[in-house]
Every structure is written in structure tokens, then in C-alpha cells.
Design a protein that fits this description.
Largest sheet: 6 strands, antiparallel
Number of domains: 3
CATH topology of the largest domain: Beta-Lactamase
CATH architecture of the largest domain: 2-Layer Sandwich
Helix content: 40-55%
Number of strands: 15
Order of helices and strands: EEHHEEHEHEHEEHHEHEEHEEHEE
Distance between the termini: 79 Å
Number of helices: 10
Length: about 375
Amino acid sequence: MSSVIDIRDGVRRSAADDQLLTAELADMRELQAISTRLIQADGKGLYDAILESAQKLLRSDMGTIQLFDSARDGLTLLSSRGFDPNDIALFDWVERGAGTSCAIALRAGARVSIPDVEVCELVAGTPAHPALRRCGIRAALSTPLVSRTGTVIGMITNHWREPHEPSEKSLLLIDVLARQAADLIDRNRNEERIIVLAREAEHRAKNLLAAVQAVVRLTKAETAHEMKEAIAGRVNALDNVHRLFVLTNWSGADLRTLIEAELAPYCGREDLKAELQGPPLLLEPNVAQAVSMTLHELATNAAKYGSFSVPGGRVGVQWTRTDEGALAVRWIERGGPTVIPPSRQGVGTRVMEGVIRGQSRGTIQFAWQTEGLSCEFSVPIA
């Protein structure tokens, strides 16, 4: 066998050693080129670039990259290579308990190599086995993408059409790629979250500003002090409901909690009572704002002229979801002063009609009965 002397250290190397060294240097150069390409990619291009690099490093026939969906506890397909489009659709979604290498790796939380799916006890005979055959998959290597916090965020899977067992060097290369890919995907997702949050913040700020402008526009008073008090109360009602939005990550507000928050300032006394009756309902933000403003006006009126203005007064709030897909709320006052119907429409009534009829395209009716005010309103809900 021919050999050469390495002048730098005097170590005798064979031609095979030189070939191995050359191959390793080529792999390192390839990893460096891959790193540069991945850093420059973003969005869908990043996933495609990761998958292309994984296939190139392991010389696999097919490949997939998936994202872990913690809510559904499974893997959703992001990108694929080498598959027939009709076949890969079988793996758009892979649940944790499936008989595929990616699901097995997800359960194990570690890399899984299956040299031959036909003799693997975790695959053969499972519902996934026919789908793997249809795709022409005979061997697979699934490598979890793990974030710096130790959480699995996705999966890279290489597939071969013939039985195949990756070498130690191949496993090392794919591990290096997986670590870098996980970092880049995490970074990309964080950047996307920042953009989405910025847009949501802008949207919410505009909605809140519009609501405040509507409050100011609808508020009328005899004096500047009365105007200030009225506006402050209505803006505070908006603030209360927005606090509830924060608790649900802006998905909406729980109706019972919203009602309790509006009535809390008046029900701290033992001689006043509120009875609430209705099913659990999460109202989306626009509806919740309208309901909150309406309840605020009703409670304020009750404190000035109705059941909350005298000892022993009580208020009942009942709500339901109608068959037509609307929220129906009934406000009933009892135990207060004798009611005298107003001779003209007050500011509070205009505000309620503005938010229910004008903004929410709902309906509202008032009944000034002798024993107490009753109000019924409804708004469409999702």
C-alpha cells in the first residue's frame, strides 16, 4: 500500500487516510456553506434550505421537515423533497402515537434511526405502515429540532428507498445541522411573533382610541365637572374590559367576570344585592366592549336613580345565547325608588343605543316599570 510522510508532524499516512481527510474537509466546507445559506434564508425559504441541506449531507432519497404543534400534540408538515405530491399528503399531520420514525422520535425525545421499516416492530403492522410503503420509504432517520431551552420544536427526517443505516459521521453532521436549524427556526419564529404582536398592538390601540372617541362624542353634560366625571367613568369601564382581554391573550372576555367587574363598586355594601344567571360565554373584544359600556351605563343609572341608590335595592342580570347566534341580556331592577319614566332621552340612553345599535348592530329596549327599570338588549356573537 502506498503511503506518504506528513512533513509537519512526521506521521506516516496511507492513501486511504488522505481520502478520509479529504472527505472530512469537504464535509466541513459543506457545513460552512450550509450555515451561510441558512443564515441568509427566512420564512418558507428557511425550511426548504434546511431540508435540502439535510438531504445533501446524508444523501437521502426523500426528506421532510415538520413543526411540533404543542396544542394538538403532533407534527405538522412544513416542507418535503423527493415525494410524489399525492403521497406526501398522507403525512401533512402526524400524531404522537403514529408508527412513523418522526412520531417515534417525538415520543423518545431523541434521534431515531430505522434501517428497515419492514422489520421494525414499532412500524410494521401499524396504520402508518401502508402509507410508508406507498411513499416508497424503506429506511428513515428522524432528528428532533431542540431549542436552547430544551424543548422539541420540530423534526428533520431523512428517508431512503432501500434499507440504510447512517454512519457515525453522518449522524454527527445531521446533529450539527439540527442544532443550527433549531436556533434559526426559533429566531425566525420570534421575529414573526414580534411582527404579529406589533400589528396586534397597533390594531388594539386604534380600536381603543375609536372607543374613547365615541365615548367623548356621545357624552353630554351641563357643566365641565359633570362632563369630566361622565367621561372618566366610561373610559374606566373600557379599561376594565381591556384588563380582561389581557388575561385571555386578547381572545375576549368572560361575560360573568365582566358583569361582576362592572357591578363590584356597588355591591360592596351588604344592603345591595346583584343576582347573576347565565351560561359561561367568552365574548370577542368588540362585543365585550359594547356589553361593558352598556352595563356601565345601567349600573351608573341604578346608582343615581334606581335600585343601587337606596338600601335593600337589588339588580338581576340574566343572559343566554339564542338559537339565532346572538347574546341576549336582561337587566332587572327591584327594591328601588318608584320609577318615573323620563320625559326625554338621557345621555346614558344615547350611549347605550349608540354602542348596541350603532356599533354592534344589535337591539335594545327599555321598560320603565313602577317597581323598577328593565332593559333587554341583544348583539350578534360568533
